[in-house]
Amino acid sequence: MLVKDTDGDYNELSGYVYEGVWERHGEPAILRWTWTVKDSNALLILASLTLFIAIAQTRAWAISRYIILTRSQVRPVRLHDETSPEPLQHLSQSKAIVQVLPFATKGISKIWRTVISALRINTAQPDQVLRSDDPAISPWFGIIALFNVAVFVTLGVAVPWLLSFGAVETPVVKSKATDSCLKSDKISNLFTLMSTTTKSDAIFSQCLDRLDGGCDTPFYLQQPVVVKKRLDYCPFPGNICHNQTRPFQITHANVTAHQVGVNSKSKISFNHRLTCAPADLTPFLLFTRNPPIETWISTRNFDLHNGKALWPNFTMTLNTMNGPNLVSEESSGLRMAHQQGPYDLTVLPRHWAGAEGVMFAPDTLHKSIQRDDGLAYLIIYRAGATGYYGSVDDPFFAAHQKDWSNITDHYYADHEATALACFETSQYCVSDSGLCTPWGRGSTQAYKVIKYPGLGLDSLAEVIALLRLLPDYFSVFSYLTELIEWHGMMPLKQVGVKPSMFSPLDDNNEQWVIEVETWFRKAILNAILTVRHGARFHLNDYSAMFKDPKDWRNSSTSFLCVEEFCFGTETTPISIGSDFGWPCQFSDSFVF
């Protein structure tokens, strides 16, 4: 179980660690089996192994020495004396190496003389014969001694290094005893689970949110397969896409249990896709009929009862009519800069309305962004007093309004609010079968994939316990709404952005594409950190639209308890438990 540190916080590295031999799935056969032991035991094992290598080295020299001695054609002439055995049988490696050095020097000198013999006359005197009482020693003794020492020194370093995955010390594996994990509840771990969202953002911030900075690399067992594409059409039924701007589509493909840190035999993979485009907010604007005129943006379906009313989870109020547009010629962006207006990012519908409302009933969403195959939403940006050096043509950060003096190069937003329209969709595939479900909202397709007749028990359990949760964990919608609504953060890549500051952009034409890709990559890391959270608490979490067939009536109460998770080169076994009659399963899984 987890214990508290002196400061009262839970130490995530404390607790139970699985010890034993386990199989690491997804690795080559030669690297698949792993032995996990405690640090103290590992030191004893490595010390014993080093001692064994040292003893093996001396025995290898004795055998090599005997073979050379018995096969040598030249042997020293000695009187037979039983009390004085053959000295070469006790020749040490160091003496053999010392004896071969003059031979090696002579050989090198001979080669050198041969090379320069064509350039000068050889005046060297005949070598003088050194007389010694020691017996003649074949140079092969020294050569074999050098080779023997080199081989075993290499083994003495390489073998412990390879067995410990190159770690200076024994790898630490986070874990949670299955019985304690299964008894954990969502309320007790909610705060820790929520912290993973900010942790992902903090990791990328170390590289100033540069996607090529490598700050997220140590957290991946395999690099994510990310495919980017620009569309030639507007993916929304209302044709609300900004003119002359091609929508941006980014896909995270072939996500397996192993990639998120779970050691599993599952043959199921998961695909996640996000599509975004700058949107015209005009269809979403509502106004009061009588002065003073009030304006708000609504993502609620106007055709529903009270569809045009203020809904806290579907609407946000504006301070202007968001002109210039069809109803107002006022430069709302310049006015908000002058009045130090709000500087924020808002996602509509908000978190719970999207996760538990629109996800189940997409017809409650505004018809201009309504889709049956994905969760759609608006990301609304209000620049406030933020200014830029030079005009900005990016439709999301559009700034062409000079300040009220009109004599500087400072530019402010065109509108009080601009928006991106986005939708996310998910898909499941069965490896080596060519079968993939259609793209759909949330985990709807998880229900379909469990009907596949060739699905093994391990894969079926994985779908119910883990893969049905991935759409929510990888969701950019969830990532943004948690940062904004729960943590009060402003999740934009712009460095040093805050009201009344002049902000640099990476791209004055398509900064919005950079922002979308950054959110997407942060959501990937956030999902991996969230799944690893199961090393301490079970992941009996929300999974929208996972409709259970009759035979799996209670499968929504299945949960995943991961006894060990992978950090760097380390992997983990898993236990999959359920409340519908299955015993807790253990995937053969394991780190030395």
Structural account:
With 592 residues, the chain is an alpha+beta fold. It folds into two domains: 45-163, no CATH class; 178-586, no CATH class. Helix content is 30%, strand content 16%. It has helices at 39-71, 93-116, 139-163, 178-183, 186-205, 332-338, 351-358, 444-449, 457-465, 470-473, 476-486, 511-532, and strands at residues 20-23, 33-36, 225-230, 248-255, 268-279, 285-287, 295-298, 315-318, 344-348, 375-382, 387-389, 399-402, 410-413, 418-430, 435-436, 559-562, 574-577, 585-586. Strand 14 and strand 15 (435-436) form a beta hairpin. The longest helix has 33 residues, at 39-71. 39% of the residues are buried. Residues 1-16, 128-135, 168-177, 542-559 and 562-592 have low confidence and may be disordered. The chain crosses the membrane at residues 42-62, 140-163.
